[in-house]
């Protein structure tokens, strides 16, 4: 069963905004070379989530996890992402789709961010 991971970010008008997410994608793929790792956006940037998932399924993905690269569970993750996931499940009935929680709500991520904040004091 081919596995895939989609890092799901908001998107912005400035192309440079995507750079840290692209680095995260590349670092994640380096740690998981056997997993297809992609980046998709909710709005304002391409590729969007439905097109990304369709391409992965067409490439043989059968297990897919979406990781929202958001700091918290705001409206986009409470309303928009569940609707997108429902549509993806309907469009790809053979796909095992998992949606993780917001990356910023993970205790390890919060600890790393806290460490960064503390180090910023010099």
From TrEMBL:
<dbReference type="Pfam" id="PF01903">
    <property type="entry name" value="CbiX"/>
</dbReference>
<protein>
    <submittedName>
        <fullName>Sirohydrochlorin chelatase</fullName>
    </submittedName>
</protein>
<keyword id="KW-0456">Lyase</keyword>
<dbReference type="InterPro" id="IPR050963">
    <property type="entry name" value="Sirohydro_Cobaltochel/CbiX"/>
</dbReference>
<dbReference type="InterPro" id="IPR002762">
    <property type="entry name" value="CbiX-like"/>
</dbReference>
<keyword id="KW-0479">Metal-binding</keyword>
């Amino acid at each position: 069963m081919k596995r895939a991971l989609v890092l799901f970010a908001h998107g912005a008008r400035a192309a440079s905004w995507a750079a840290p997410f692209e680095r995260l994608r590349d670092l994640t793929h380096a740690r998981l070379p056997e997993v297809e790792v992609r980046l998709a956006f909710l709005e304002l940037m391409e590729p969007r989530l439905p097109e990304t998932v369709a391409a992965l399924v067409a490439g043989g993905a059968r297990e897919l996890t979406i990781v929202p690269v958001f700091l918290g569970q705001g409206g986009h993750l409470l309303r928009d992402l569940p609707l997108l996931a429902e549509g993806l499940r309907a469009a790809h009935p053979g796909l095992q789709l998992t949606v993780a929680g917001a990356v910023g709500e993970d205790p390890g991520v919060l600890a790393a961010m806290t460490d960064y904040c503390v180090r910023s004091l010099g």
